[in-house]
Amino acid sequence: MDKNFNYSSLKLGIIGGGQLGKIMSQKAKKMGFHVTILDPTINCPAAQVSDRQIVGGFYDKEKLTQLVKECDVTTFELEHIDTQVLKELYDKDYRIFPSPYVMELIQDKYEQKKLLDEKGIPVPKYKSVQTKEDLISFGLPVIQKAKKGGYDGKGVMLLKTEEDLENCIKVESFIEELVDIDKELAIIVARNIEGQIAAYPVVEMLFDERVNICDIVMAPARISEEIEKKAKEIAIKSIEVLDGVGIFGVEMFLTKQGRILLNEIAPRPHNSGHYTFESCATSQFEQIIRAVTNLPLGSTKLISPSVMVNLLGEEGYEGEPFIEGIHDALEIPELSFHFYGKKETKPFRKMGHITVLDENLDVALKKALKAKDILKIKGSKKI
């Protein structure tokens, strides 16, 4: 795509119709683009705001081919997809970004880590495992990770003792050292087709320990300028190593010794970047549209410190969602409420998020925690 491309008639395809695809579609529609969603769920969140939905699974070769051939550019809101047919289409010069080759690499967390390590990106010590002896020889305690398919805390297991090995992940996996973590950090990095790169502020993530899902994001992270600079350098280099095009969520560990280790990369809009919708000059959702259509990347300037809180389905409930406390929560100054439009809630399912702005990050956190206590996503059935 060059400057002479007729952007007024651009057709964008998005593989995946969840909340990320929904907000991507809203931003693409604001820019006047035609959006087609591929998702197996009829009237999924993204389909509610898009021009068209192709109903099909993410491993449906026929439907994936149809989407790519009908659109000028195809991108993703999730990484668990059939890369084989997409690689064949990409090799025939269909525009698919990030490239299916990048997606395939990132799908395998071990191969992802191995490449980054070989290219000089600092990562935790790791090893592929085949037997319990491999685990023991590495030295306990360790973190065991499934090579493929893990997300939102799934496919990750802490093994402290030999007795824990009975509960180890039974799929192809690798192990990592148990890092002495001071903070978990993340950066959203954008890169367009011409290689222009833009990095957002470094943020700090807090996790719900019950299910290891990112619970709270603070922007900017409470770190020194030196640590921020180093983290950005590592994040940008990692996306250059991948030759990635699009938006990437780069998750990192800051150790108690002051080292930065790259944990993993998500090749799509990321939970740690939701705050950009209200807090930055250009949101991650508009930025990915710019990147994959080869438009100039937008400013990543932080307009205001902010705290984002995920709204997870309440434990003990499922079925049609009910939002409890929305009136009281919206009385909190500078709070923005996002509900994703999912038809059913489940325990710990991501149902929405809030972002709270304040010139003082500590005040923003207090306001966000107050809202978190007020807002509950319950369901029509108790379980």
From TrEMBL:
EC number per UniProt: 6.3.4.18
GO BP terms: 'de novo' IMP biosynthetic process
Catalytic activity reported: 5-amino-1-(5-phospho-beta-D-ribosyl)imidazole + hydrogencarbonate + ATP = 5-carboxyamino-1-(5-phospho-D-ribosyl)imidazole + ADP + phosphate + 2 H(+)
Signal sequence bounds: none
Pathway(s): Purine metabolism; IMP biosynthesis via de novo pathway; 5-amino-1-(5-phospho-D-ribosyl)imidazole-4-carboxylate from 5-amino-1-(5-phospho-D-ribosyl)imidazole (N5-CAIR route): step 1/2
Record's GO cellular component terms: cytosol
Pfam families: ATP-grasp (PF02222), PurK_C (PF17769), RS_preATP-grasp-like (PF22660)
Residues that bind ATP: 109, 145, 176-179, 184, 263-264
Record domain ATP-grasp: where: 113-293
Family annotation (PROSITE patterns): ATP_GRASP (PS50975)
GO molecular function, one term: ATP binding
Domain of life of the organism encoding this protein: Bacteria
EC top class named in words: ligase
This protein's UniProt keywords: ATP-binding, Decarboxylase, Ligase, Lyase, Nucleotide-binding, Purine biosynthesis
Family designation: Belongs to the PurK/PurT family.
Quaternary structure (record): Homodimer.
Function: Catalyzes the ATP-dependent conversion of 5-aminoimidazole ribonucleotide (AIR) and HCO(3)(-) to N5-carboxyaminoimidazole ribonucleotide (N5-CAIR). Catalyzes the ATP-dependent conversion of 5-aminoimidazole ribonucleotide (AIR) and HCO(3)- to N5-carboxyaminoimidazole ribonucleotide (N5-CAIR).
Protein name per Swiss-Prot or TrEMBL: N5-carboxyaminoimidazole ribonucleotide synthase
Organism this protein belongs to: Arcobacter ellisii
Gene: purK
